[in-house]
């Protein structure tokens, strides 16, 4: 139970400690996660843990077993006849929209005559238990006419098959600059995708309401969108659908649009049967039938001078989008927006291709294309450094954006107003002892026949805001009750990132009450409507601001009331540490004032609203100011590589991240550590493998290996950049932290290449596609050894 | 009817489908939703609970994956789930440390971590080292935290300030021991429901009888592999016969010549005895599955399953182990290398089962090396697993056995490779010849774990590692990255 703080009647002596005493749980305190005690005790209820209504049915989907083709016939008689089966739905049962594409059409609820990917849902069956439903779903007899399928980016490119038109950002004449540059390099890199692997799989419980409405309990980053889609599919007004989302067992982007289909299917069956229906995907089906981080092919052509300063860059980023657009347009845009990472590109041509493949439609994943764009340019940095024979860190530093010499504008026209990275990198270089370790590692590598160490420092500059402008808005709803307890609601969803904790801290600070008074409640579309997905690292920036505005509204009402009631001026009414100071000798507890205000008919409930200022992007011109601000950080990773096997370990990492004025240092550090490890998994052991038939072969944690506890670097130093409040008017001058640190992990990949390059005395830059599994590392070692041997032979011959 | 203690209270189940997993039973029947389903395949640990087994007059708790545990396997044991740890408003030290260290983010994996920490807390008196923590928690995946705060919690939970005044697991142990003793008698334990049948005999003789009576029955030991047929393939198994209560199959004993491991002994039961004889296999045992899997999985299961990627067979083949096979009529001994006939095919005859595994003691002068190669260090299946047993006399190889898993449809010896080494010094010439011979021994497959080329090359390179390690023991550390600090 939550204990309300003591509200004893204060005396005049309370004036004395007013400066010193603080509320418990205000901003900038390392408050524990609001659900921490419920997490550890198993009392935190996830969607599948809720008690279900009597008569609840369990639904499951039948999945296509070919990658591409025509459905000649689908016989569901055996499904219907199976034990426990109550109902079946197909596309024909849908009264409204059959397409649930979130931005562009292309995502049918069930396959519409054609199979678009291996594992596409064909129909759904509801039965009296989860097992019976799963068994029945496997009994369908489907005849296909298989068609040839494009499974790779190269196949899609060759066929000029795209889910959306390509887009190019241009600054100056890159081709001319590259041709005229003293040095030139070009190469290609394959960047692997990534499964979100939220520990809690996709799950929705749809309960039928009166007059055909639905109340949905779900694990979903975007309650408003699923509300709208259910309404459209059922052909009912949006107001008839209520979505309730208390917490997710992880989302990472995988429940931004990809949670919708299961909710829609549950709702369809609830409508058809009049009973509550739960859909929960088994892990292998979850991994097969939902989208992942896009895999990319990047091709670059770069011109630079003898010091490694870039003069022109031509880069094309080709994303494997799968069968439909989903969010791919924005994801590839974000990859393009981050193809500079932290570096000034005097001339650049950045092209993004949205390649269609006959595979599951790839979707959002923490970083949203940014990581792929960033790893592509970091590859270029390392290659340049080795070409000019300099430490990659020096080449990176020289190429950074800076205030001098007109080096402060991105290739899409946004001016970098604050140059945080040069100082941040300098500081990290010192605290991580980079230079000394570089020397030590060189000595180690010279002395060792088998093991090699690698070291890399890579920076991150990540743009904060949704690139779709209208999503940059949020709402909140705040209720103060007469005992001074508070319910807080807003449009953001809690998926572990600590959003509910931070927003409660914000409200606690504004109202000057202990956080324990504030109960964050489930995100519900009937409390705060028309919300944006919790994504783009914007959850706190948007919802924190909306909640603050709601709290300010109530505070103003209480202030005005107190001034009038106690016959003083508003300026003299002060809220501090659970009390309200009216005059020298007049102090009320917050609860007393709430009660008094209620008796005098003052509204104690308020909404709050916020929209982000300043942002715009003219896509026709590929120019604008798409980001409110940038989040910056850098990491130094050290690795140890076994050149016999390709096995490796990350032995030490040092991170310095700018989170502005941190709202909660403990939660921010948790986000940074978790993102770094998740990114490390993306670049190292997490390998998605499809068979020639288009079936995902790595469809479970048995075959798809996310980092385990032993992969945590033995030395893991994370620090927040001190004294760096956001100059923009963000919530308490904090900065977003959800996605940016994921890209700090690029330092791991870069360090692996560094270790391999040591085999050629850093004269060659090994090609190392991601994920850099031990096998790919060994192949890179083989290649670099072969080239070195060849060069020695040539030298010997000449 | 089966009986067990659930969170300190006796529970009797008379009518339940024995194909039901423990996790489904907890969540669906009892509505104990603290244990989570993350994968239903024993790979994520979100469903971890502690299973207490009688050990004389005490109860020994171990972490298990409830998602792949057949319900019947808990008979006569004490199952502790996350719901039990918090007493009133008092969090258990494992829980409090997780809260204090910010060890949960989304919270979904958290109950599983808490239960693994609970077991660690019972096994250790003071905070263990990092290696031990990782070994205990390697089977619990977290996608949010990056694990650093969880490692910190594993240390902090031993802080005396967090210890509760009253610990029911100590206070009530004597009472629970009596209850468990009353449940553990020598007769068969049976559970029937949904048209399916489960029998747990107490002796080898009875097991042999049951196999005659139910020729189509499936043997289940830890269930770590068999349960996947239930949770992934959605099979129904009509008759399950549990080996975990069979007296002759659960012990470990030693003779002058052999270590005799009961086929139903779990890795963590026989591991200490095996590593006492062969310290070189410690790493393999710590990397085989996860802690939870090693608590449940058995050597008989690993061998009987005849998977090409089982990690124990290459080691046992190199050691020259043999099997004691029992049927209703006879007992026979069979060298392990004659047991595997083809992909998932063995020399077991109808009605026969593996009763024990006989591992020869090391001969003086023997050197053993076992190397496992996988994408991830912990809880991953081998791309290749090589075991090498060599006797060197005056630096000449006088005896050699080399065996690999992951390289063919069955785990088997590399005879050409052995021939290339026999009678030679471990010099570059012999190693090069052995590497070339290995390419004649094996033509491995390509799959999602590794390509054929990588499997072969890395296996060949393991011979170089072997050479380096055996010729210069001080270089051991510098030829391997995969050792915990």
Name the descriptors.
heterodimer, A: 798 residues, alpha+beta, Aldehyde Oxidoreductase, domain 3, eight-stranded mixed β-sheet, 29% helix, 24% strand, B: 485 residues, five-stranded mixed β-sheet
CATH H-level superfamily of the largest domain in chain A: Aldehyde oxidase/xanthine dehydrogenase, molybdopterin binding domain
The average pLDDT score of chain A comes to 96
Beta-strand level of the residues of chain B, as a percent range? 15-25%
Specify the structural class of chain B.
alpha+beta
- Shape, per Cα inertia axes of chain A: globular
State the low-pLDDT regions of chain A, or none: 1-18
Q: How many domain regions of chain A?
A: 3
Task: Give a written overview of the molecule.
The complex is a heterodimer of chains A (798) and B (485). Chain A is 29% helix and 24% strand. Chain A has 798 residues and is of the alpha+beta class. Chain A has three domains: 7-30 and 473-611, 2-Layer Sandwich (Aldehyde Oxidoreductase, domain 4), CATH 3.30.365.10; 48-148 and 202-280, Aldehyde oxidase/xanthine dehydrogenase, a/b hammerhead (Aldehyde Oxidoreductase, domain 3, Alpha-Beta Complex), CATH 3.90.1170; 295-467 and 619-794, Aldehyde oxidase/xanthine dehydrogenase, molybdopterin binding domain (Aldehyde Oxidoreductase, domain 4). In chain A, the strands form seven sheets. An eight-stranded mixed beta sheet of chain A has the order 3-5-1-12-9-10-11-20, with helices on both faces. The model of chain A is unreliable at 1-18 (pLDDT under 50). Chain B has helices spanning 22-29, 93-100, 110-123, 130-137, 148-156, 168-171, 173-183, 204-213, 226-231, 247-250, 267-277, 282-287, 291-296, 299-304, 312-319, 415-421, 428-441, 452-471, and strands at 2-6, 9-13, 48-55, 58-65, 78-80, 189-193, 196-200, 218-220, 239-242, 252-254, 258-262, 322-326, 331-335, 340-342, 345-346, 353-360, 366-373, 384-393, 396-405, 412-413. In chain B, 33% of the residues lie in helices and 22% in strands. Chain B is globular, with a radius of gyration of 23 Å. In chain B, a hairpin with a 6-residue loop joins strand 19 (396-405) and strand 20. Chain B: It is an enzyme of class 1 (oxidoreductase). Chain B: Pfam families: CO_deh_flav_C, FAD_binding_5, Fer2, Fer2_2.
């Amino acid at each position: 139970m939550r204990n309300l703080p003591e509200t004893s009647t204060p005396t005049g002596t309370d004036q004395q400690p007013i400066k010193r005493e603080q509320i418990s749980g205000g901003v900038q305190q390392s408050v524990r996660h609001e659900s921490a005690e419920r997490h550890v005790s198993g009392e935190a209820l996830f969607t599948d843990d809720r008690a279900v209504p009597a008569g609840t049915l369990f639904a499951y989907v039948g999945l296509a077993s070919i990658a591409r083709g025509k459905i000649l016939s689908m016989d569901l008689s055996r499904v219907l006849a199976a034990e426990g089966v109550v109902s079946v739905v197909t596309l024909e049962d849908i009264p409204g929209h059959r397409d649930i594409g979130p931005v562009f059409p292309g995502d049918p609820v069930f396959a519409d005559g054609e199979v678009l990917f291996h594992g596409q849902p064909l129909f759904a069956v509801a039965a009296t238990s989860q097992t019976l439903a799963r068994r029945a779903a496997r009994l369908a007899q489907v005849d296909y006419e298989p068609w040839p399928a494009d499974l790779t980016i190269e196949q899609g490119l060759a066929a000029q098959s795209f889910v959306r038109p390509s887009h190019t950002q241009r600054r100056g004449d890159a081709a001319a600059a590259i041709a005229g540059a003293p040095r030139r390099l070009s190469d290609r890199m394959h960047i692997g995708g990534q499964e979100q692997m939220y520990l809690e799989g996709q799950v929705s419980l749809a309960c039928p309401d009166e007059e055909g409405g639905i109340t949905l309990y779900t694990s979903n980053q975007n309650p408003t969108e699923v509300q709208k889609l259910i309404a459209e599919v059922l052909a009912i007004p949006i107001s008839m659908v209520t979505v309730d989302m208390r917490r997710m067992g992880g989302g990472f982007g995988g429940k931004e649009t990809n949670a919708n289909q299961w909710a829609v299917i549950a709702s369809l069956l609830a409508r058809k049967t009049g009973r509550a229906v739960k859909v929960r995907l088994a892990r292998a089906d979850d991994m097969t039938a939902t989208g992942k981080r896009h895999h990319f092919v990047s091709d670059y052509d770069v011109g630079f001078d003898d010091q490694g300063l870039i003069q022109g860059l031509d880069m094309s980023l080709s994303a494997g989008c799968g069968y439909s657009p989903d969010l791919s347009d924005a994801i590839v845009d974000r990859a393009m927006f981050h193809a500079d990472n932290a570096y000034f590109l005097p001339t650049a041509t950045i092209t993004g291709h949205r390649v269609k493949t006959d595979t599951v439609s790839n979707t959002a994943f923490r970083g949203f294309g940014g990581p792929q764009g960033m790893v592509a340019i970091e590859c270029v940095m390392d290659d340049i450094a080795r070409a000019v024979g300099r430490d990659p860190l020096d080449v990176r530093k020289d190429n950074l954006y800076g205030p001098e010499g007109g080096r402060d504008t991105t290739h899409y026209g946004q001016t970098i107003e604050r140059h945080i990275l040069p100082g941040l990198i300098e500081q990290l270089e010192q605290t991580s002892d980079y230079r000394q370790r570089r020397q030590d590692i060189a000595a180690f590598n010279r002395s060792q026949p088998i093991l090699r160490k690698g070291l890399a420092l890579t920076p991150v500059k990540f743009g904060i805001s949704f690139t779709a402008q209208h999503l940059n808005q949020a709402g909140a709803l705040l209720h103060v009750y007469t005992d001074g307890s508070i319910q807080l609601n807003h449009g953001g969803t809690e998926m572990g990132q600590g959003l509910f904790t931070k927003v409660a801290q914000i409200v606690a600070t504004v109202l000057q009450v202990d956080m324990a008074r504030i109960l964050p409640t489930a995100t519900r579309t009937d409390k705060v409507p028309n919300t944006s997905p919790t994504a783009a690292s914007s959850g706190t920036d948007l919802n924190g601001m909306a909640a603050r505005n709601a709290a300010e509204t109530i505070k103003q009402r209480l202030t005005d009331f107190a001034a009038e009631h106690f016959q003083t001026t508003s300026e003299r009414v002060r809220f501090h540490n659970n009390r309200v100071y009216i005059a020298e000798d007049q102090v009320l507890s917050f609860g007393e004032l709430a009660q008094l205000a209620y008796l005098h008919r003052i509204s104690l409930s308020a909404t709050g609203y916020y929209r982000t200022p300043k942002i715009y992007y003219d896509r026709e011109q590929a120019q604008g100011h798409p980001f409110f601000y940038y989040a910056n950080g850098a990491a130094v990773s050290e690795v140890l590589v076994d050149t016999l096997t390709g096995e490796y370990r990350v032995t030490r990492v040092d991170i310095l991240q700018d989170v502005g004025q941190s709202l909660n240092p403990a939660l921010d550090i948790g986000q940074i550590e978790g993102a770094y490890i998740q990114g490390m998994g993306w670049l190292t052991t997490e390998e998605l493998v499809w068979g020639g038939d288009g079936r995902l072969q790595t469809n479970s944690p048995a075959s798809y290996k996310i980092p385990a506890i032993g992969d945590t670097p033995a030395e893991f130093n994370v620090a927040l950049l001190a004294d760096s409040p956001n100059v923009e008017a963000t919530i308490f001058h904090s900065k977003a932290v959800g996605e940016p640190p994921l890209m700090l992990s690029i330092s791991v990949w870069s360090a692996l290449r560094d270790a391999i390059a040591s085999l050629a005395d850093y004269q060659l830059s090994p090609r190392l596609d991601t994920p850099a599994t031990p096998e790919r590392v060994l192949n890179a070692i083989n290649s670099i050894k072969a080239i070195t041997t060849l060069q020695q032979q040539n030298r010997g011959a000449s | 009817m089966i009986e067990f203690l659930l969170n300190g209270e006796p529970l009797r189940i008379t009518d339940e489908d024995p194909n039901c997993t423990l996790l489904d039973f907890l969540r669906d029947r009892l509505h104990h939703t603290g244990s989570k389903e993350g994968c239903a395949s024993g790979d994520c640990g979100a469903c971890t609970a502690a299973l207490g087994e009688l050990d004389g007059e005490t109860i020994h708790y171990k972490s298990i994956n409830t998602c792949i545990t057949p319900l019947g396997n808990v008979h006569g044991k004490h199952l502790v789930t996350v719901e039990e740890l918090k007493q009133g408003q008092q969090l258990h030290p494992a829980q409090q440390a997780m809260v204090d260290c910010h060890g949960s983010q989304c919270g979904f994996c958290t109950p599983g971590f808490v239960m693994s920490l609970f077991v660690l807390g019972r096994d250790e008196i003071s905070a263990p080292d990092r290696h031990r923590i990782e070994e205990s928690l390697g089977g619990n995946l977290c996608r949010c935290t990056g694990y650093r705060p969880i490692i910190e919690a594993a240390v902090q939970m031993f802080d005396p300030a967090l210890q509760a005044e009253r610990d029911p697991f100590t206070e009530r142990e004597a009472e629970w021991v009596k209850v468990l003793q009353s449940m553990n008698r020598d007769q068969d334990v049976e559970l029937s429901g949904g048209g399916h049948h489960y029998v747990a005999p107490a002796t080898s003789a009875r097991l042999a009888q049951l196999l005659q009576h139910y020729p189509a029955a499936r043997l289940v030991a830890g269930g770590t592999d068999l349960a996947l047929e239930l949770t992934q393939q959605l099979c129904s198994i009509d008759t399950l016969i549990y080996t975990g209560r069979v007296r002759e199959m659960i012990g470990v004993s030693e003779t002058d010549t052999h270590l005799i491991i009961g086929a139903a002994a779990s890795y963590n039961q026989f591991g200490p005895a095996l590593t006492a004889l062969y310290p070189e296999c410690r790493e393999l045992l710590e990397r085989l599955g996860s802690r939870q899997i090693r608590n449940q999985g058995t050597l008989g299961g690993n061998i009987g399953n005849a998977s090409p990627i089982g990690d124990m067979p290459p080691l046992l083949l190199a050691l020259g182990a043999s099997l004691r096979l029992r049927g209703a009529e006879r007992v026979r001994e069979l060298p392990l290398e004659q047991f595997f006939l083809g992909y998932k095919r063995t020399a077991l005859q109808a009605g026969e089962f593996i009763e024990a595994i006989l591992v020869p003691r090391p001969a003086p002068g023997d050197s053993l090396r076992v190397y496992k190669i996988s994408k991830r260090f912990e809880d991953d299946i081998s791309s290749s697993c090589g075991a090498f047993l060599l006797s060197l006399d005056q630096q000449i190889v006088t005896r050699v056995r080399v065996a690999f898993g992951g390289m063919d449809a069955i785990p088997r010896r590399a005879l050409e490779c052995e021939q290339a080494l026999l009678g030679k010094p471990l010099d570059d010439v012999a190693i090069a010849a052995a590497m070339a011979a290995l390419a004649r021994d094996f033509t491995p497959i390509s799959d999602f774990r590794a390509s054929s080329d990588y499997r072969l090359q890395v296996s060949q390179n393991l011979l170089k590692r072997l050479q380096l390690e055996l010729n210069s023991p001080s270089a051991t550390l510098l030829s391997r990255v995969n050792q915990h600090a």
